[in-house]
Design a protein that fits this description.
single chain; 181 residues; alpha+beta; 2 domains; 3-stranded antiparallel β-sheet; 15% strand; globular
């Protein structure tokens, strides 16, 4: 099994669940490489791409080109170059969210997606991201004090609401947003 390609903006897509071990062949290259992408895939003509593409075809851009596909909606990304929009949209594994995913930016670049988190994951694995999540709850949900803490404690990685954790590649600042249906 060859090593997985490196994704600048999604450093561990296996840990985030966007890429899984699989013996399924890739629809792009028709090879069985031991991994398959199971995240979102958007294409006007091909509505069955999730679970059908290998990480290598995504990384090199051939999957996006062959199927007219994107893997993340980059429409909300601000203050980044066209090259960054293209890399995140067409050569980076996306991730599932409750509504529409958002790829966060900082320092005029896309941030690295680190994963989904509930209160338990934030307290154990992403402790440095807690202030970013609480800032999001204050700004986006207008929460404060005990109400904010209660909402924070209700965050769930596998349920909802869920926190989505990012880190700037330049200043190392943690960024986050919270999503629910």
């Amino acid at each position: 099994m060859e090593p997985l390609p490196t994704f600048k903006y999604h450093p561990d897509p296996v840990a985030t669940g966007s890429i899984q071990q699989s013996e399924s062949p890739c629809l792009g290259c028709n090879r069985i490489r031991g991994y398959i992408y199971v995240g979102p895939a958007y294409s006007e003509k091909f509505h069955y791409l999730s679970g059908s593409l290998c990480p290598w075809c995504i990384a090199e851009g051939s999957a996006a080109k062959r199927f007219g596909a994107t893997f993340t909606d980059t429409g909300l990304m601000e203050d980044v170059s066209e090259a960054v929009l293209e890399e995140v949209g067409t050569r980076t594994p996306g991730f599932e969210s409750w509504q529409q995913e958002q790829w966060l930016t900082c320092c005029e670049d896309a941030a690295a997606f680190l994963g989904l988190a509930g209160a338990a994951e934030l307290k154990s694995r992403f402790t440095e991201a807690i202030p970013a999540v609480k800032r999001c709850l204050e700004d986006d949900y207008d929460l404060a004090g005990a109400e904010l803490e209660e909402f924070f404690d209700g965050l769930s990685k596998d349920g909802q609401p869920t926190a989505y954790i990012f880190r700037c590649l330049h200043c190392n600042r943690y960024l986050a947003y919270v999503d629910q249906t």
